[in-house]
Amino acid sequence: MTTLVDLLRHLDPRLRDRLALELAQRPVGLEGVPRGVTVVLAGHRAAGKSTVLPLVAQALGRPAIDLDAELERRAGRSLRSWFEADAASFRAAERSVFAALPPGGVVAVGGGFLSLHADLLRGCLTVLVPVTFETFVERLSADRSRPRLMPAVSLHEELTASWSEREAKHRAVETVSFVDFMRALARPSRPRRVVTLPPGADVAAFSQKARGAGAELLEVRTDLSPPDAEVGASALPLLIAERGRRSPEEWRRLAVLLDADDGSLRSHHAAAPMTTDEALAHWQGVSDHVHVKHVEPLGALASAAPRLLQTQRALQQAHGAERVTVLCTGPLALPFRAVLAEANALDYLALDDAWSAAPGQRRLDDAVRTARRSPPGGRRSAAAPGDVDPSPTHAPRPDGTTRRLGILGSAVAHSRSPRLHAQPFDRIELPPDVDLPGLLSALRPHYRGFAVTSPFKKAAARVAEASRDAVNTLVREGAGFSGHNTDREGAMAVLLALRARTGAARVTALGDGGVTGALREAAAQLGLELSVVTRAEANGPLTGAVVWTWPAPVEAPPALRLAGAQVAVIAYGAPAQVIARRVEQLGGTPVRLGPRWFIAQARRQRALWESSP
């Protein structure tokens, strides 16, 4: 990955000290480089535009195009011979080829482009690559491969005249100083988002969908894609990963990052957890310009986060924070990967729940939501309509803890909690037999709280030593977590709505799981009579007001009938649709109250999490 040191090293030596000082002192001039906007490196001849082009393109994760080289390739002749034979046709080709380039790349243009074709730069981000007059003369006097602009006069007279003429024209064009541009590159607000092309997927369609969802790099792995795949059709810059076999030369040429033994990115997938010293020893001697991707199994829960974070810090110190990505894998890896991503250079994500390239990957939309609503430094965009909580920063606090949130469950794919609560908020899918006490202890420094859903509400209550049998909210407190059941607020909202609709003073709850306790509390507070029907007891028709508490995957008892009952469906999204159809098949009328329950309990969760130290 490119650093400011890399860029400064390739600029005019006479300017380096001054630019380094400006870089340290000047206020930020850019808020990042918008995706889809072409970056144009412009300026005088011999400024070094072609030299810094690949570095800038790599830093942005975009394709690099040297316009002069592209013109020579298309014409099959040298730029000098072409210009000397027919300067007008060269300038016309310069315009037409630039205008036909796809947007979003990084383009280095010739020395006359800014003076002659400034109208083509509207909508582009034009960066002025600096050079002193002394270096300009020195370099062009030594380089006789370039065409003469004024062959009738001496070279020195030509250089002096062309410098003065173009300097005046450059000042009339809207450009960004290279210092401000470098500062924008130096402020990675988050890791670049990478999605992997699934086996058999159409490159163009998948990458277009991924780009629209917020991905920034498409990883194409040689063990997943055939060697004749048309990767050039990708709507995203390519990260080519060689797994088991070398990639085709065309793939390598198109790659912004090449994950290979001789590439710009090197991966190490450890077979077992490594100590920090072992990780450092493995990466000792790697080139200064190589990106390091270090992957380990999660290992023991108690030591996983301290070990991985220590390794991440050590590798960053050795190789540069902008070059290091540390990942872990395994069925419990997701929250640890989310924590590591706060400082990683790359974030490998799953586009959706259909396919994941590695165990423990987060969904792309969760990472996008986190970046949109809680950027480092405390700045954030306005909350979307209906959001429960604007986003606080998730930067580490003085005591080393962060303020992440998450939802724990075995079926959280459709959870709306990440859409409503403060970011970052992670969907953490867990196996039913997880060591919940061990996991919560390991995550405590990194998460200020959790929403808890099926099947962990009772287990979470035991971990938090709560007075209730089941809890749906954990709040970081003291040396552990306190447990709360904000479902009572949700149950209150649902029972009030059901009573207003039916006028009933008696309600039947189908099922005796975690939420039924909340229904009992809410019914008692409202003066409603609540009866509970378990699966074994559901052997006849039910009428009146009913609340369905069974999850969508649980089939209804065979003997259950709903004789015109008004049935509150407290799920939401796709599960609610499944339950509503089931209610209708059994003779009842579904009343969709899931969002009402969810919003009411989420407001209470917000208040509890905000009280967390």
Please provide a brief summary of the model.
The protein is of the alpha/beta class and about 625 residues long.
Tell me what the structure shows.
This protein has 613 residues and is an alpha/beta fold. It folds into four domains: 4-186, P-loop containing nucleotide triphosphate hydrolases (Rossmann fold), CATH 3.40.50.300; 188-373, Aldolase class I (TIM Barrel, Alpha-Beta Barrel), CATH 3.20.20.70; 374-485, Rossmann fold, CATH 3.40.50; 488-601, Rossmann fold (3-Layer(aba) Sandwich), CATH 3.40.50. 39% of the residues lie in helices and 18% in strands. The radius of gyration is 30 Å and the shape is elongated. Strands 2-3-1-4-5 form a five-stranded parallel sheet. The chain has a five-stranded parallel sheet with strand order 9-8-7-6-13. Strand 14 (404-409), helix 17 and strand 15 (425-429) form a beta-alpha-beta unit.
